Amino acid sequence: MEYSAVTLGRMIQERKVSVAEAAKAVLQTIQEKERTYHCYVTVCSEESILEQAEKIQRKIDDHTLTSPLAGVPVAIKDNMLTKGIPTTCSSKILEHFIPTYTATAVQNLEKAGALILGKTNMDEFAMGSTTETSAFGVTKNPSDPSHVPGGSSGGSAAAVALDECTYALGSDTGGSIRQPCSYCGVTGIKPTYGTVSRNGLVAYGSSLDQIGPIAKNVTDCATILQTISSHDPLDSTSYPRGDLNFTDHLTCDVKGMKIGIPKDYFGDGLQEDVKEKVLQVGKELEAKGAILEEFDLRFVKYAVPTYYVIACAEASSNLSRFDGVKYGYRTPENTDLHTMYKRTRSEGFGSEVKRRIMLGSFVLSSGYYDAYYLKALKSKALIKQAFDRAFETYDMILAPVAPSTAPKLGESLQDPLQMYLSDIYTISVNLAGLPSIAFPCGSDSKGLPIGAQLIGNCFEEHKIIRAAYTYECEKG
Ligand code: GLN
Question: Closest Cα to residue 125, out of 173, 192, 86, 85?
Fold first, then answer.
């Protein structure tokens, strides 16, 4: 079914389609396309999906479930815990792990009557930009299967683009919602840090991670974000916000809004047609009454090194819990405790994850802590200050999502450093805790999608939602 989430939800409420019919249609699409694109690590059994559908339908029929998302089929990135459904983080170390509880964001969806289809493929532990570091095979780009879908939420973005689900959840530590959205031609939001609970999200870089929606349009994203956001005592960094009514801001009006265009984001290394299409978004918003201005953001060149020091440091600590004792895989060798730890981790983690654990342990080690980790924290503060200054003048910032369109399969992994550099436009947003919406704005000469992002100040999702919605309205 090619309907957006809100449209399908409305049809379900109006009894034009039943939840079971919606479920069967999407299962049919999964069956047709999954072999080629491989968006999922786990698809729930037809039996359990139809059982869920029946329960939801009953509640809709007796009017206890009136949410716009009730009965709408959703896919969840495989780093969010789902009780009774395997959660692997696309890693061998969690291959047969079945959680005993469900992540708060997913619980919020369940309360709204979401129909969970399964778990989507991703880079192992969300480390990567292509979904190729998954231990369970690569996902292909919906526009051209010889290209990557982006990452790390590549399975979620591709599944939405291919109608293998109506919408999906992703997580974004340094761009993992926005960049695959951009490569696959769909829309996604990385919310302000603290808006969506991280309880039950397998931690990568805890100070950067946020869960967010991936969907077909801005209306869906605003509706989903409103549903999953909550203040959660189980996440100590969850923030009690009183302004979570994002759908109120779906208005086609940007008159007087000031949009900053950071010159540093449109220089060398940016693919020409990406630059052109992203700037075109600015022109269209200007035609609707927005005020555009170029400015120097500063400190952009420090974003990649700062991010990789901090993200790897936090990852090395977070991933120490995978030791063969508490969760998932344990080496079959019968040996002493320390060898068991070593073998389990050597056999269970893939090479990108190991590289980051080593890098993280190195920057946190006593001889190098000040030189690397502490320095990274200082430059993170400078990056945040640069954004604070920008938001004194501008309501939002327009930027590309990635320097190019989706690379070919196999190209990026040959050179990890090059891959890290391609995160240049997304990672500062996480370092500064800001919200950002990525949405499609055209395609390149090969027909591969191009994405733009609008970055807002903390707690100002409403502004970027309004501007992206205005752009979408204009495009029809
Ligand atoms: N590509 C970045 C990384 O590999 C971002 C990943 C993410 O946001 N999870 O760390």
Answer: 173
Total Cβ atoms within 10 A of residue 258:
14
Tokens of 258: 């000031």
Yes or no: say if 463 and 435 are a contact pair by the CB < 8 Å rule. Answer: no
Q: How confident is the model at residue 224 (pLDDT cuts 50, 70, 90)?
A: very high
Backbone angles phi, psi at 388, to 5 degrees: -55, -45
Residue type, 291: I
Instruction: Give the model's pLDDT for residue 327.
Output: 87
> Could you check whether the bond before residue 361 is cis, i.e. omega within 30 degrees of 0?
no
Would you call the peptide bond into 207 cis, given omega within 30 degrees of 0 as the criterion? no
Say how far apart CA 153 and CA 127 lie, in whole Å.
10
Active site residue 152: yes
Which residue out of 78, 120, 121, 127 has the highest number of ligand 1 atoms within 8 Å of its CB and is therefore the one to mutate? 127
Q: Where are the alpha helices (DSSP H) in 62-214?
A: 104-111, 154-161, 178-184
Q: Is the pLDDT of residue 1 over 80?
A: no
Sign of CA dihedral 362, 368, 374, 380: negative
Cα of 23 from ligand 1 centre, angstroms: 31
CA atoms within 13 A on the CB side of 47: 0
- Selection from 356, 370, 27 nearest residue 173 by Cα: 356
- Give the H or E element holding residue 291: strand 291-295
Q: Which two tokens stand for residue 142?
A: 């919906």
Beta strands in 175-290 (DSSP E): 187-190, 210-215, 258-262
Amino acid symbol at 181: C
Length of the chain: 476
Is-contact 70 56, C-beta < 8 A? yes
Whether 171 and 126 have beta carbons less than 8 Å apart is answered as yes
Judge whether 187 and 25 are in contact, CB under 8 Å.
no
Q: If you ran DSSP here, which 8-state letter would residue 407 be given?
A: P
**128 Cβ inside 6 Å of ligand 1:** yes
Q: Which residues contact 197 (CB under 8 A, 6 or more apart)?
A: 103, 104, 105, 211, 230, 232, 234, 235, 238
* Residue with the two structure tokens 């055209």: 442
- 133 CB-near residues (< 8 Å, 6+ apart): 90, 123, 124, 127, 151, 152, 350, 352, 353, 413
For residue 177, the ligand 1 atom closest to its alpha carbon is 8
Its pTM surpasses 0.85: yes
For residues 175 and 150, give the distance between their C-alpha atoms in angstroms, rounded to a whole number. Answer: 10
Q: pLDDT tens, 298-346?
A: 999 999 999 999 999 999 999 999 999 988 999 998 889 999 999 999 9
* 363 C-alpha to ligand 1 centroid (Å): 18
- Is residue 244 within 8 A of residue 189, CB to CB? The reply is no
Report the alpha-carbon distance of residue 124 to residue 292 in Å, rounded: 39
